[in-house]
Amino acid sequence: xxxxxxxxxxxxxxxxxxxxxxxxxxxxxxxxxxxxxxxxxxxxxxxxxxxxxxxxxxxxxxxxxxxxxxxxxxxxxxxxxxxxxxxxxxxxxxxxxxxxxxxxxxxxxxxxxxxxxxxxxxxxxxxxxxxxxxxxxxxxxxxxxxxxxxxxxxxxxxxx
Length: 160
Description:
By secondary structure, this protein is α/β, with parallel strands linked by helices. It has a domain at 13-63 and 102-159: 3-Layer(aba) Sandwich (Hypothetical Protein Ychn, Chain: A). Helix content is 36%, strand content 16%. It has helices at 22-37, 76-79, 84-98, 104-113, 122-127, 145-151; strands at residues 12-17, 41-46, 117-121, 139-143, 156-159. Strands 4-3-2-1-5 form a five-stranded parallel beta sheet. The two termini are 26 Å apart. The mean pLDDT is 93.
């Protein structure tokens, strides 16, 4: 960046979490937390399998995807061995503990307390037959995509 080039600071981010594995959820949570720590307004929109993050009965049972995950650097056949996903999840959680990264439920509480806004996608809720009572209390509302875009006006939209 040259001296003449000036960028406006980011003031608002809208993060979309659409994957339901630990490696799909944590990047969005970490980015939302980082935004709040920098004083940036943050909202997180959970859609499709990302809803796993905010479903009371599922949020603490999320695992690492080992089948077809090129980042695992193991053949798909190995990833499909019974227990491999649980093993990989245990290993990842141990590494996250070393870095003081909280479990999903604590992370969500932390984000909410820091002022991040959490929303569920109406279309995904309807598709998976979830109800408002299935969601954790920190979820502000269930939004349509149009409502998400309206609230995201002026934000950088980030997909994880």
